[in-house]
Design goal:
The complex is a heterodimer of chains A (281) and B (308). Chain A is built from twelve helices and no strands. By secondary structure, chain A is mainly alpha-helical. In chain B, a hairpin with a 2-residue loop joins strand 1 and strand 2 (69-71). The chains are: A mainly alpha (281), B mainly alpha (308). The interface between A and B is large, with 94 and 98 residues.
Chain lengths: 281, 308
């Protein structure tokens, strides 16, 4: 039997749909598995299962309360919000200057900014240790805010500068003619247009701060000051006679849900922010 | 330039420096200065808890001789082990990510029903914190109760449970799998964005000329998305070379999987050796810089030969 073009087309479509389904399952399964595990307790954990078999919130109660992950979540929110605030304020003014004012050195600055984004974190670790101690921020959430904000600057400045360059100059020329100062121009002309870009870069900085591990592990010692990733890494089971994986997964799910919700709401903005820099160059 | 315009220009330039100052101060103070201090400490014998008491020891932290025996990072077999681990981890996982990412990008580029759903699903691994994904995969790779062994034995591929996290080679496989799962979406999204910039008329013209799907892929798609592909590759390679958190949690920095970043941090924080740790950090920095330079250099050569 000869293969007709029509049959070939159907086969191709089927293969594509199977591929798509497989991609979806592989992407979601580990998280799904974690949710299922987090709802199970005791003997139930000893058998791999693929469908919900139990609905117990014990693991969550233990992980969020006694094990301190609730506290860590709060710390992570504080650190991430302050990081985003600091990073945006500093990068809005810098990107405005880099995008809208021609001055000697602007290219050098952009190049330096790009270099910093390539740094392996470990390369600054011992120097940072000294700096954090000098600033009196050791074992303090402030240490994380300062370091995260600095290391998210390159990306934020880069994206905002690229975006501001696309805005027609007429907009600010009118304001300059009216005698508006730079502060006024930034505040009342640029901020409103920048809104969407700020949401994108702010979100990416937030996610970066939420996920960071090495600095959080090194500069914070007290369990009560831990951020979520460190809290999860140090999590202990409720008792040594039980598999600790139920509470591990409960903590993991609790740490992921805020981020997944943000990603689902702002999906389009995040994708455009991630791809903007790379595709336009 | 009229005098008036020149003063305005100068004033604007001054304002520009004023506006960029906070960012520059932060970048210099919190990134540049610590980097400089790390270089400095790599030539000292300081300990982490007493960084003020040190003496200069030259290159001993890198390589030195005491009583005829080589000491220093470059004489430590574990350092070289971590270099091999990091390079092979980066090479294998970035290659897998590129191939899989390309496949997923091409898939998402098709007009399929439920395409939006797939695009959302793909963002989930990207959004999950690395530590969380390390824990999730650690549980899935669990030798007795994990689903990976369960699925493999149901499929008849293994007849007894495999110790994913304990066996040296398998533990590295586990690390690579977890990393590929988490970062392929980033690659796929970048490549998809690049695919979307290719005008469809090019494909139609090629189809009229009778070019096969394979030919169209190699001669239209690949050359046109190459710039974006290189950028994505550099980003991912830089990221893979500084891997730390995944390995720290998934395999507890075991010798078979420890990365250069993990080695440097171990020396610095674990053994409190600020000098040795800094020396290892400097070597990591040089290694990453060298790889980045190679990438840019070969990219330029390839781009140059392409234009001729």
């Amino acid at each position: 039997m000869a293969i007709t073009p029509r049959a070939e087309k159907i086969a191709l479509r089927t293969a594509l749909y199977i591929g798509a389904a497989l991609t979806g399952v592989v992407c979601v399964f580990p998280f799904y598995n974690a949710v299922l595990t987090s709802l199970r307790t005791g003997q139930d954990l000893f058998l791999p299962r693929y469908l919900p078999t139990a609905f117990s919130l014990d693991n969550y109660v233990y992980a969020l309360g006694e094990a301190g992950i609730g506290r860590s979540l709060l710390n992570s929110v504080i650190v991430a919000v302050l990081t985003v605030g600091l990073c945006l304020v500093v990068s809005i003014t810098a990107s405005f200057a880099l995008a809208r004012i021609r001055f000697a050195g602007s290219k050098t600055i952009l190049f330096v900014v790009l270099c910093v984004s390539m740094f392996p974190q470990v390369a600054v670790l011992s120097g940072m240790f000294e700096l954090i101690r000098f600033l009196g921020l050791y074992d303090h959430l402030g240490a994380l805010v300062v370091s995260y904000a600095t290391f998210s600057l390159p990306f934020t400045i880069w994206v905002l500068t690229t975006f501001m360059r696309t805005i027609p100059t007429e907009i600010e020329e009118a304001a300059i003619v009216d005698g508006a100062s730079i502060a006024v121009i930034i505040r009342s002309v640029f901020l409103p247009i920048l809104g969407p870009s700020l949401v994108t870069t702010g979100l990416l900085a937030f996610i970066g701060a939420w996920n960071e591990f090495m600095f959080a592990l090194t500069f914070v010692i007290s369990p009560s000051n831990r951020t979520v990733p460190v809290g999860i890494a140090f999590l202990q089971g409720a008792s040594q006679y039980e598999l600790p994986w139920g509470s591990f997964m409960a903590a993991s799910v609790a740490a992921t849900i805020p981020i997944v919700v943000l990603v689902l709401i702002f999906q389009k903005r995040i994708v455009s922010g991630l791809t903007q820099g790379a595709v336009k160059e | 330039m009229p005098r008036n315009a020149k003063t305005i220009f100068n004033r604007r330039a001054k304002e520009a420096w004023f506006l960029t100052m906070p960012a520059l101060l932060m970048l210099f103070g919190v990134a540049g200065w610590p980097l400089f201090r790390t270089f400095f400490y790599s030539f000292t014998d300081a300990a982490l808890d007493t960084p003020d008491e040190y003496s200069l020891v030259g290159l001993t932290n890198y390589l030195g001789w005491v009583d005829g025996e080589a000491i220093g990072v470059l004489a430590d077999p574990l350092w070289w082990r971590s270099v091999v681990n990091t390079l092979s981890f980066a090479a294998v996982s970035v290659t897998c990510e590129l191939i899989l990412g390309m496949a997923v990008a091409l898939l998402m580029h098709q007009s399929l029903r439920g395409r939006g759903l797939i695009r959302t699903a793909v963002l989930i691994p990207w959004a999950i914190p690395t530590i969380v994904s390390a824990k999730m995969w650690g549980w899935m790779f669990h030798d007795q109760y994990g689903v990976v062994n369960d699925i493999l034995s149901r499929l008849g591929l293994i007849d007894h449970p495999v110790a994913w996290i304990a066996e040296p080679f398998l533990s590295m496989c586990a690390v690579v799998i977890a990393d590929v799962w988490k970062t392929t979406p980033f690659m796929a999204l970048l490549l998809l964005a690049a695919l979307q910039t290719i005008p469809t008329s090019l494909y139609e013209a090629a189809r009229v000329d009778g070019a096969s799907a394979w030919t169209r892929f190699w001669h239209i798609t690949i050359p046109l998305i190459r710039p974006a592909m290189i950028v994505a590759l550099i980003f991912r390679a830089m990221d893979a070379l500084r891997v730390f958190d995944l390995i720290y949690v998934l395999t507890s920095n075991s010798e078979a999987t420890i990365s250069v970043s993990g080695y440097a941090r171990d020396q610095l924080v674990g053994y409190q050796k600020m000098g040795t740790g800094s020396a290892a950090s400097v070597l990591v920095f040089l290694m990453v810089t060298m790889v980045a330079a190679c990438f840019l250099y070969f990219n330029r050569i390839a781009a140059g030969s392409g234009e001729k």
